[in-house]
Write a structure and sequence with these properties.
Layout lengths: L4 E2 L5 E12 L2 E10 L4 E7 L4 H17 L7 H4 L2 H19 L5 H15 L5 H5 L4 E6 L7 E4 L3 E5 L1 E2 L3 H14 L10 E5 L5 E5 L9 E5 L8 H7 L4 H12 L3 E6 L5 H10 L6 E6 L11 E6 L13 H8 L6 E4 L5 H12 L3 E7 L3 H9 L13 E9 L6 E9 L5 E8 L4 E4 L6 H9 L3 H20 L5 H18 L1
Parallel strand pairs: 4-7, 12-16, 12-17, 13-14, 13-15, 15-16
Antiparallel strand pairs: 1-8, 2-3, 3-4, 5-6, 5-11, 6-7, 9-10, 10-11, 17-18, 18-19, 19-20
């Protein structure tokens, strides 16, 4: 197969960033720059392989393909890409030794891995997957370079081009085969995930009119913690303390926001506030949550039907099943449908603490979408919610912020307690609480002054996390465990 092309004919005007990543002993140079027309670019170059070595590798590739017709490999039958790589590794190693007889083992392994990646793996997409600064990797077809979304620089056009639509479809097949999914002309849409947890969506032409597409949302190698949120200015100390107070006192929380606003990351942060002596059941389409090991946590995942249409396990199936597992807390990846919302709110009304995400851009839109078709939950049902937390992302700067924190009034309307001030880049107080304090007093006996003292103690602990730069999810969980243990001894 023809390997992806790397286009190096772009004129740079202003260098924005540069760094290196390493994959299988290969050093990759990354350069980010603005061209003369003001477009941002992400250039990738493999440092260990010279142009002359690349020419020889092309000859080896051609000889390898002539011996093994890779184009005829049925990945759905042969097994995973990793299995197929192992099958051909020795054969490629023999060819490498013939053309490069004096190479040491490290160099031979480097060249073998390069050939395997380009011919059986995902090519240079595998390199992009190793860059921790990337959030999205997007293939729009063979007519244009791959695009990426960079955590620091936003959308960038790369210098990587996948030369044929056939090759893009091949990559989709490789991805699907590893997780038991397929993409065909009869089923031209595929939602899947890589073995690393990265979420993948793929489409085939002519459904996507400009060509076959692949969109990869990278799974965070290290989950976001409340420390990260506070350091990045995503949320304020008082805002984090309010959410912590609600979680500790078993109030249900719905996290809203647009695409890429950080809903799941906030859900992960919210879950880390949970006491360790309670049973937590999480329900997701694809595993994204990474909770502290201190927690009594049982993660559940949905499953699509097999080619015969059997064996499907839906989000609704798991929500209903979770109620039979004696949960103290239920975490739902995303509320999308009426039946899911009805079961979820019923769980809240029967005394379970429930946490989930929802696609809406602000508090008002969240309530409107929940209480109108197609979800159409009765407005008074919303009173089971303790808080609505809305996340947003500035598409120009890429910054994620908590936009609003609101409580639900007895009427089902919202009272916004805190709201993001764009000019001050800060979460500021909007209205005094009308129901949260009353709820706490009813169930815990805490007075307003006691709640304020508790909030101040939480803010002190949160500031300690930031000062000591405690960002590991398990170390953060250990701090919260100590907090709850100390509180139990006092009571």
């Amino acid at each position: 197969m023809q390997e992806p092309l790397i286009n190096t004919q772009t004129g740079a005007e202003k260098k924005l960033d540069s760094y290196q990543i390493e994959i299988e002993n290969q050093v990759i140079d990354i350069n980010i720059f603005l061209d003369r027309e003001g477009f941002s670019h992400y250039n990738l170059s493999i440092k260990n392989i010279t142009k002359s070595t690349r020419i020889v590798l092309d000859k080896i590739r051609e000889e390898f393909i002539s011996q093994i017709n890779i184009g005829t490999i049925d990945f759905s039958e042969e097994g995973s890409a990793a299995t197929i790589k192992d099958r051909f590794k020795q054969e490629i190693f023999i060819l490498i030794k013939r053309y490069f007889p004096r190479t040491d083992k490290r160099t031979s392994d480097l060249l073998v891995n390069e050939l395997l990646r380009q011919n059986i793996g995902l090519g240079d997409i595998e390199i992009l997957l190793k860059d921790d600064f990337l959030e999205e990797i997007v293939v729009n077809g063979a007519q244009e370079p791959i695009w990426i979304y960079h955590k620091k620089h936003g959308w960038l056009k790369t210098n990587i081009i996948i030369p044929t639509e056939k090759r893009i479809r091949h990559y989709s097949t490789v991805i699907g085969s590893d997780v038991g999914k397929e993409i065909t002309m009869l089923k031209p849409l595929m939602d899947a995930h890589l073995l690393s947890g990265d979420r993948v969506n793929a489409t085939l032409h002519p459904i996507s009119s400009n060509g076959n597409t692949i969109t990869i949302r990278k799974f965070a190698t290290r989950p976001w913690t409340i420390t990260d949120f506070l350091k990045a200015g995503t949320i304020s100390f008082p805002g984090a303390a309010i959410i912590w107070l609600a979680v500790e006192n078993e109030m249900s929380i719905l996290i809203s926001g647009g695409t890429g606003s950080g809903k799941t990351s906030m859900l992960n942060v919210v879950a880390s506030f949970m006491p360790i002596n309670q049973r937590v059941i999480s329900i997701e389409d694809t595993r994204e949550l990474q909770l502290p090991r201190e927690l009594h946590w049982v993660p559940l995942e949905t499953r699509i039907a097999n080619p015969e249409g059997k064996g499907e396990i839906t989000m609704l199936d798991l929500v209903i099943n979770s109620l039979r597992m004696r949960p103290d807390r239920i975490i739902m990846g995303e509320v999308r449908r009426k039946a899911e919302a009805e079961v979820l709110f019923e769980a809240m009304h029967t005394g379970h603490s429930v946490y989930g995400t929802f696609h809406a851009n602000n508090v008002k839109e969240t309530i409107d979408r929940l209480t109108n078709p197609p979800i159409d939950v009765p407005k008074l049902t919303l009173t089971a919610l303790g808080l609505i937390v809305v996340q947003t992302r500035n598409r120009r700067t890429g910054k994620r912020r908590t936009l609003q924190i609101a409580e639900i009034l007895p009427t089902g309307d919202a009272n916004v307690i805190m709201q993001f001030d764009v000019n001050r880049d800060s979460l500021v107080n909007m209205n005094d609480s009308k129901t949260m304090l009353d709820t706490l007093k009813l169930y815990t006996g805490l007075s307003k002054s006691q709640v304020e003292a508790d909030m101040n103690e939480k803010i002190k602990i949160l500031k300690y996390l930031v000062k000591e730069n405690i960002i590991d999810i398990n170390k953060v969980g250990a701090i919260f465990r100590q907090y709850y243990n100390k509180k139990m001894r006092r009571s």
